[in-house]
């Protein structure tokens, strides 16, 4: 039988939406000026979304929402047997345990410095002046044996 779609062949698919609003700092395009402006605030170090529990600021609302889960103890089911800190995801507990053990599986190929957490590693890479896709492949995670 034939496949029925929306009436368009692959060659006739609608083009992606235009992104006329461009970030002057990095060149990223946006469909709305409000999205570009919110993005630009992150380049300027602005963090307009603030946690009411601890005062930490975030550039985007979804980042704040993820952070707020840290304050909800009932959602942190994975506890560290060494220090009692708890986490909502087992992967976060695993990373935390690596820090206790002194393991640093993320290594900067620029300077050789090692990190227990991928987030700390990526922040370090930015200190070398590497942004976005340049970070990909610039460090490596050592395989566990």
Automatic annotation (TrEMBL):
Q: Report any one BP term from Gene Ontology.
A: regulation of gene expression
Annotated region Disordered: where?
Answer: 126-145
Name a GO molecular-function annotation.
zinc ion binding
| Occurrences of domain C2H2-type (ranges) | 21-48, 49-76, 78-105, 106-133
> What cellular-component terms does GO give this entry?
nucleus
Alphabetically sorted, this entry's keywords are: DNA-binding, Metal-binding, Nucleus, Repeat, Transcription, Transcription regulation, Zinc, Zinc-finger
Gene3D superfamilies the UniProt entry points to: Classic Zinc Finger
Annotated localization? Nucleus
Q: What is its main location?
A: nucleus
One Pfam family linked to the record: zf-C2H2
UniProt family annotation: Belongs to the krueppel C2H2-type zinc-finger protein family.
Q: What is the name listed in the Swiss-Prot or TrEMBL entry for this protein?
A: ZN436 protein
Species of origin: Setophaga kirtlandii (Kirtland's warbler)
The gene coding this protein: Znf436
């Amino acid at each position: 039988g034939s496949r029925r779609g929306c009436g368009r062949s692959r060659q006739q698919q609608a083009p992606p939406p235009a992104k006329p609003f461009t970030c002057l700092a990095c060149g990223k395009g946006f469909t709305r000026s409000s999205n570009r402006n919110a993005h630009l605030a992150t380049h300027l170090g602005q963090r307009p979304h603030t946690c009411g529990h601890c005062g930490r600021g975030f550039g985007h609302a979804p980042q704040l929402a993820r952070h707020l889960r840290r304050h909800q103890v009932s959602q942190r089911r994975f506890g560290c047997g060494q220090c009692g800190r708890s986490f909502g995801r087992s992967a976060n507990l695993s990373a935390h345990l690596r820090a206790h053990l002194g393991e640093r599986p993320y290594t900067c190929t620029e300077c050789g410095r090692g990190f227990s957490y991928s987030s700390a590693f990526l922040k370090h890479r930015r200190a070398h002046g590497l942004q976005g896709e340049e970070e990909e492949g610039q460090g490596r995670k050592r395989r566990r044996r």
